[in-house]
Fold this sequence. Notes:
Blueprint: H1 2-28, H2 41-45, E1 50-53, E2 57-58, H3 65-77, E3 83-85, H4 102-105, H5 107-117, E4 121-130, E5 133-142, E6 147-155, H6 161-177, E7 183-189, E8 192-195, E9 208-219, E10 226-242, E11 247-254, E12 265-268, E13 303-320, E14 326-344, E15 349-363, E16 373-390, E17 399-413, E18 423-438, E19 445-462, E20 468-483, E21 488-504, E22 513-530
Parallel strand pairs: 1-3, 1-4, 2-4
Antiparallel strand pairs: 4-5, 5-6, 7-8, 7-12, 8-11, 9-10, 9-12, 10-11, 13-14, 13-22, 14-15, 15-16, 16-17, 17-18, 18-19, 19-20, 20-21, 21-22
Amino acid sequence: MNSYxxxxxxxxxxxxxxxxxxxxxxxxxxxxxxxxxYRSDIDKLLNLKSVVIVPAYDxxxxxxxxxxxxxxxxxxxxxxxWSLAELKLPTSENGKQFRADWFEExxxxxxxxxxxxxxxxxxxxxxTKSSSGITVNLALYIKDGSPLISVSYQDEKTFEINKVNxxxxxxxxxxKQKLPYNGLIVSRTGNMVTINLGQKNGxxxxxxxxxxxxxxxxxxxxxxxxxxxxKEVIGQIVVTKVESDLSFAQISFEKEIGVIEKGSKLLPxxxxxxxxxxxxxxPILENEKDAKEWVPTPxxxxxxxxxxxxxxxxxxxxxxxxxxxxxxxxxxxAPTLKLGVELWITSEWFTSxxxxxxxxxxxxxxxxxxxxxxxxxxxxxDLMFGYKYSVTGNFWGPQISVGGGFLMGNTQVxxxxxxxxxxxxxxxxxxxxGGNFPVSENNKTAFGAKAKFILFETFKETPVDSGKSxxxxxxxxxxxxxxxxxxxxxxxxxxxxxxxxxxSGTGSNINLLRSSEEKAVSYLFGVEYxx
Length: 531
């Protein structure tokens, strides 16, 4: 009996041991020991391993197009970080002509091109030639169709193809430098990792690299390109062996077990290490006390406000109904104030509100009318909604604008007997056309022009009128802007406005008018703050 029991115990023990060994083998053989996914969607989106080049664009009949495409292809082929993907357009787009600047405007189209080409990113080149020289722009887009990085170069003297190739090479390097990470983890085994940085990147043994995760992309509200990223350091590695294009490293620490994985981003840390306090020989200077980290000034994102002061050369004239008396009042030095605000709704669309006011005294031009001196106050309010097109894709480059809105004008004048000039108000819908063009090498100084045409206007007089009125209102202006800093620029401007009115029928004015005309030329000097 005892022998039988012993046999049962031995058999059960063997079964349990074999089952335990099998279970251990399954665990040891698990190829994914860290099944939890720690990476954010943005971090995955920035895993750029392949890039597709779209046909370049130039405005001179393709003179630079082929050379630019060839040079970009060569640069990517020689770049061990990226592989070159073959351009495959969506079936619906085959055979159609498209422009390189469409990729900025049509994100869904950009997304489809990358999906069809099986690429992680898309690179476009736009080259424009004008009287101010040549402008070269490279733009990098990512899988969701959004722009990530844009780099530009402008030169007044460059036109040779060889020089353009040098510019593209330089811009390509600057574009790579703007990426929010230096390299990637390409594999992990235990606590050992392989990275795609090597001797060519200046790496050496015992270098320390921090490992980070990208949490969010900060974008320019107008241009939509990346201005920065939010990232979280999740660990650190120490390089143990360096080869030409890759290296091997050991994880020294990580935030969670398994959080460092294939595709994790690398940042250099190599901080200076000090010993004990007594070994630090560098003295603390007076200007280093309570020092704060320097950060670059963020670019304007939301709009601008402006204030301008100056004078206006103002003239108002009238002719009586019989055509026998043509008289006027003038003031060549009328103090003028102008205030404005412009808000950028998107990178192209904007809305603005401007207010201008002048006040002055002038001699009563109507013989026999009193008082001899008349007080004038002229006010204008201008509300507009418009669209700006950046010719080169550069915020500070040439721009063309078109818009529409509502204009309200009001002239208040002292009552006289007989009435020389009536107070009046003018309202109407307006059409706006404008342009802004850099005139300096660094784009800091620009010349601009604008024109406004009033449509469907209404004209009203008080306290008396000269009958049915028909008004024609137009205004034109030119200006210069010069950047003092990223957020501040000065703006001298000259504006010309005219309000011409013809009358018909009977009215309550004893001195019935055939026509009247107001003209004003304003000379203003203003300051704009961009925020």
